[in-house]
Write a structure and sequence with these properties.
single chain; alpha/beta; GMP Synthetase, Chain A, domain 3; Rossmann fold; 3 domains; seven-stranded mixed beta sheet; six-stranded antiparallel beta sheet; 20% helix; binds S-adenosylmethionine
Length: 333
């Protein structure tokens, strides 16, 4: 039995003791930051960027609050308390940060000791397949060669994020679990009754997260890869968004210019080539509407270099290659 103590610093006996049944790994009584669950993700990111979050210990969830274990005291982000934190099961250092989890598939990058890593990952309850990237994403469908290493013989899985469910074959379609936060952030900006256009929809993660977390009037999702399109249709049903999302199979270059009406939000997640499609998107943008353009560059200046629309903001989303990043650029007229 592990006891969690909530203790307001400097105030005696204002403590809250809560029992929790957890397998004992090792625990430490240390300082933590208590925040409401609605702010938890934003605060977690902030703490990570400040290098103030202790990754060695698990955060606590008590009622509507989350308590993050801290490396050092921080000011202005929430209430500092003392609590007992449980140590995380450690990922062996040789595989730390080297894999993604998509549904029940662990996808590793490069590794000399791939069999050892696969064996280690297969010990996890949530992993049924271990696979390795066998090349870069290629072609207009951004597919990746993937080689199975261990577990079941399949690359199809069910992935959950942002209260949505996605069926995807990771060898046939693009899917990046690391964009989960990005999708949620974009979804939060979509206002009630807006029209949304997802020009490179893939299996539907942006469209579906927006449909689930916001209240747009309608979403049009265009995808050219026939296989990804089949998953897109399936995922729309799976998430009960048939009434909201209209999937269209085709090339955005042909489809978008003939779509009726204008759009308040246009998502352009085809980082390698999105800029080529910008004039088409701009034509379809409603007054005051926003384009979310994903593009690759070394710096924000590099990405903005040849863009002539009004820039509302730039965010570095993730790294792409050693010196280059994917940026999200918000544009308006
Ligand atoms: C980088 S992926 C992004 C997919 C999805 N938005 C996501 O976040 O997972 C780009 C997608 O655009 C599709 N695509 C590429 N060229 C296209 C075009 N001209 N028209 C429509 N879709 C296209 C690809 O097949 C791929 O699924």
């Amino acid at each position: 039995m592990l006891w969690i103590r909530f203790e307001n610093r400097g105030r005696e006996m204002d403590n809250e003791w809560k029992p929790k049944s957890l397998p004992f790994l090792g625990e430490l009584h240390m300082i933590g930051l208590k925040v409401h669950k609605s702010e938890a993700e934003a605060v977690r990111r902030k703490l990570l960027s400040m290098r103030a979050l202790s990754r060695r210990f698990k955060s606590l969830r008590v009622g509507d609050y989350v308590v993050f274990p801290l490396e050092r005291e921080v000011k202005g982000l929430g209430e500092i308390i003392h609590a007992s934190f449980q140590e995380r099961k450690r990922t062996p250092p040789e595989i730390e940060g080297k894999f993604d989890i998509i549904g029940d598939i662990a996808l590793i990058s490069r590794a000399e000791n791939e069999q050892e890593i696969a064996k280690e990952l297969m010990k996890r309850k949530n992993i049924r397949v271990v696979a390795i990237r066998a090349g870069h994403r290629e072609g207009e469908f951004r597919k990746m060669k993937i080689r199975l290493l261990a577990g079941e013989n399949r690359l199809e899985t069910i992935h959950r994020e942002n209260k949505c469910v996605f069926k995807v074959n990771i060898g046939e379609c693009f899917f990046d679990p690391r964009l989960s936060y990005e999708r949620r952030e974009v979804a939060k900006e979509v206002k009630e009754n807006e029209r949304v256009l997802d020009m490179f929809a893939g299996v539907g993660p942006f469209s579906i997260v927006i449909g689930k977390l916001s209240s747009p009037r309608e979403i049009i999702s265009v995808e050219k890869n026939q296989v990804a399109f089949s998953y897109l249709k399936h995922n729309i049903k799976l998430n009960k968004l048939d009434e909201k999302i209209t999937p269209i199979l085709g090339d955005s270059r042909d489809v978008v210019p003939v779509l009726p009406g204008k759009f308040h939000r246009i998502i352009m997640n085809l980082p390698e080539r999105s800029k080529e499609f910008l004039p088409i998107a701009e034509e379809k943008l409603a007054d005051g509407g926003v384009i979310y353009l994903y593009s690759i560059g070394e710096s924000p200046e590099d990405v903005l270099n040849d863009i002539h629309m009004r820039v509302l903001g730039v965010r570095r989303v993730k790294s792409y290659s050693p010196k280059r990043y994917i940026f999200r650029v918000k544009l308006t007229r």
